[in-house]
Amino acid sequence: MKILHSPFLLYCIAFLQIGFGVFLAGFFPLKIAIPGYATLRNNETEPQFLDQQNGSKMPPHDQVKVKPLFQKMVFILIDALRADFVLPLSGSDLPRMEFVSRLVANKETFSFLARAHAPTVTMPRIKALTTGGIPGFVDAALNVDSQALQEDNMVSQLQRADRKMVFYGDDTWMKLFPGHFMRTDGTTSFFVTDYTEVDENVTRHLDTELSHLNWDVMFLHYLGLDHIGHLAGPRSPLVKPKLQEMDSIVQRIYTAMIEWDRKAGTSTVLLLCGDHGMSDQGSHGGSSSSETAVPLVFISDQYSHGQGAVYDPDVELEQIDLAPTLSLLLGLPVPQNSLGTLIIDVFSGLTIRQKLSATYINAQQLLQVLENNVKNHKQEPSFLSLERAIQSHRDWLRLWHDNSTLDMESLGEKTLTTYRHAMNAMRDRVASTLSKYDLHAMAVGIVSVCMALLGLCHGHLTANGHLSLRVDTSSIFPILGSLSLLLSLHAVFCTSPVASPLLCHCGTLSLTLTFVLLTAGSLWCGVLLTTYSRGLFQEIWRQVCSQHAVGLFLLGGAVFHTVSLLSSSFVEEEHQTWYFLTVTVCLLIGLEHWRRSVLKTSDIPPTSVTPQDATGRQETRLSVGDTAYREISTRHRGTTEERRIHVDNRRETHADDATGEGVVVCLCSLAGVLVSCRIARTWNQTGDKWSHLPDMGDWLVRPEKKVILSMLTSASLVTICAVHWRDHQTSLNRCLFLLAAFAIYCFRAANGSIVLPGVYDPSSMSKGVVEARCVYAVVAVLFINALYNLYTTTSKLQIDQDDDKSLGATAAVWSRFYLDLLLQWTLVCLLLVRTHNISLVAVVALQRACLGRALLEIKWMSSSHLTLLHVWLGQATFFYQGNSNSLATVDLSAGYIGLEEFNLPVVVTLLYVATYAGPIYWVIALMVHLNTRHNQGTMLVNRSLSVATTQASFTLALTRALPVALYLVLVTVERYHLFVWSVFSPKLLYETMHTMLALSLVLCLAVSNIFIK
């Protein structure tokens, strides 16, 4: 069985992963921008108009030139600066920057609320601010490893214009614009536990720069506010002091700016903005209002004394509008890929004719982008609108040239409005074409995933003994035919207009991918064709019809969850699906077990296996009077091992040995599981519609509840120790576990989350690096000790396939190993989760203990059903943690626990582990329950320990392949949907990471199954 199924399982998951990767490469292609840089040379600043006297075109006698309004600029970017931290938004109770708010209220600024595009993470937002374009969604995944920006941008235009620049702050700028700055000092943006030094490193350069003034543009990127949000959220007591600090810096620069402007006769503008906002949970990356709303505040001496404008809450801009606005304010050409439109209000120092000229320049640049991205652009409604706006501009110029007595100011404002509507239409039209999908690669990926799904279904049935994995020699003809057909189709598509640049390019990667997919696809087509003749789908239907209520609900629930992904609302609120499924299945398990114990019925009578007869067939003897399964011996033929597997599975599925006392214990344990589910779902509100509602976590993290949180954390750690105390009887494990639990509490006390009087001073917080590393060391020692015990114990065992005691000893050894592994993983979870979620870990540990006790009494659930149950519980725990299908709920702070400096591989690993701690926990618990169950079962069940692991592996892979196959079809169909980037694409990234996790776990199970005797 192991020889047959392990390679086949690895083949299926490899095929699934390759197909998934090909689809992602087609769905998330890197954005290709127009090469080169924009220039002001030979550009018309005004449209030509007809002279009414002679009917000839003529330019104005004095064609107006748009001169720069400002010679210097201070660009202050405060990471995660929500709009309501600055602007007076209704309904907000958050603190604000008082000095800036006072300038806004006194009409000494031009202030706007701007909307950022998803994904709301730093690197794509910096690209948007400097290029005026809309970065691709894949930039969110590239955020941790920024590369030099090759696209035309404002910073490069400043360098080309010989403007001297200095920069201090997030080193992402230095990676995007290498060699652009005269002086610079960068700090890593990913060490989120630091919110003081990261800002002090920027501020310490201000005295020098404000006194030298040998620069034209100074960029400052402050990170502390964003880090506080990740650590404690926007309502943390740390937010107000940080805003006061930022406010004082703005005031300091503004005062110095006015002084040097008045002395030198120059003009300087200070821009205060945020790259993205901050969710109510403190994170970002999604598309909620609080994450996309950022302030844009223009401050200058020109706007002082009430020369600015009052903030209008009804006016919203696009964040990308900043690039063309700043470019023309500083006398630079607009970046040629920009989709932004001028914020014309800040050009208050210009005449109406100069404003029209600046808008005309912006319109011509947008027209160039439209020409490069839309075929037959002259037939577009937006182009026709622009033509009308330009004609209105010509008419205005003619009237101005003729010295008309009309109100030229009002007519000019109307023309500006016409321009604005036309440019917004052009921007929307171009934005809709920027997502260029590789449909060829996407289709190949979908077909590959679907074929892997069918393969896993086939492998699951063979693992249960219902089908044979043998392939006849006649399969060579379907294989060769399939290969010829696939080669022909590939050649046709690669010579068509929809040819994939990934699969049809003559490169090493594309040739390798094409060879692998064609060979594997043709092989699998032949296998499937021969399998269909054996009645694959008839066998699937027969098994569906013969399942008990719990099995049918598990199968139906898996299908229901998959189908629910077709709805954007169900994707946003997916946690509700898992909460319903887990509670319902636990309730059904209790009812089914009670029914079997009360009615004393069994779905299948005892069976016995006789030796093979002369023809190689095996007879399965049934008890007298049974007719339901009298044809088992004729339907299931093959090797002795295959027939034994079938009978073992029937016995395992339908055995009913419950006693009265055992039933009571089982039902009480399941009741404990239900209660723990109800408690866990109240811990963290998640999703989209109800995430703003208060929950237990919000109540516990309040500053005045720190003592209560400390007591609850202590009680939770004690509870977890009690749960694992009985499972780990060696003194070494117990002592090390107590040491790690104490170190975890000390780590939380060191960073100020909880209190430990007499040891940690609440007024001075640290990163707790030593305490965290102590926990890592304990986990490493425990893991090495567990591996050593496993090796030494298994090497001493003399395994006899016909000896029940020997087989039980093997299951006991592996059960002990997985219990040790579960203990280590629990310590990792306790260290990486947020402080208030430590109690959630205790609740989940109790839930696992209750379920384990119930499963000892339930012997009628198959290994596949147990796997589905644990996968569901893992999914529910994923959402219990506060995760969702939005990037905003990723807890970045977990990636830096125990680190003193940024380390990309370690940070990514810790972040991945923290996010998927729940699903991994329940997969380990699954192996504990499977091995414990086989250790305490009958001889016949012991014989199928290896088979049970194989069944679990195939089932776990199927739980990923089924939703992924349907979801890929969905995002392909809905690729132009309104929510494709805000809902479907983030979910696709989560599915990617979850699939990688599940397939890695399947690989580990397949490898471990080799060593199970």
Automatic annotation (TrEMBL):
Subcellular location: Endoplasmic reticulum membrane
Main subcellular location: endoplasmic reticulum
Keyword field contains Transmembrane helix: yes
GO BP terms in the entry: GPI anchor biosynthetic process
GO-annotated molecular function: CP2 mannose-ethanolamine phosphotransferase activity
Transmembrane segments: 7-28, 439-463, 475-493, 513-537, 549-571, 577-594, 707-725, 737-760, 772-791, 822-846, 902-931, 952-973, 993-1012
Keyword set includes Glycoprotein: yes
Coiled-coil intervals, chain numbering: 353-380
Domain GPI ethanolamine phosphate transferase 2 C-terminal: 668-1006
Pathway recorded for this protein: Glycolipid biosynthesis; glycosylphosphatidylinositol-anchor biosynthesis
GO CC terms of this entry: endoplasmic reticulum membrane
Cross-referenced Pfam families: Phosphodiest, PIGO_PIGG
This protein's name: GPI ethanolamine phosphate transferase 2 C-terminal domain-containing protein
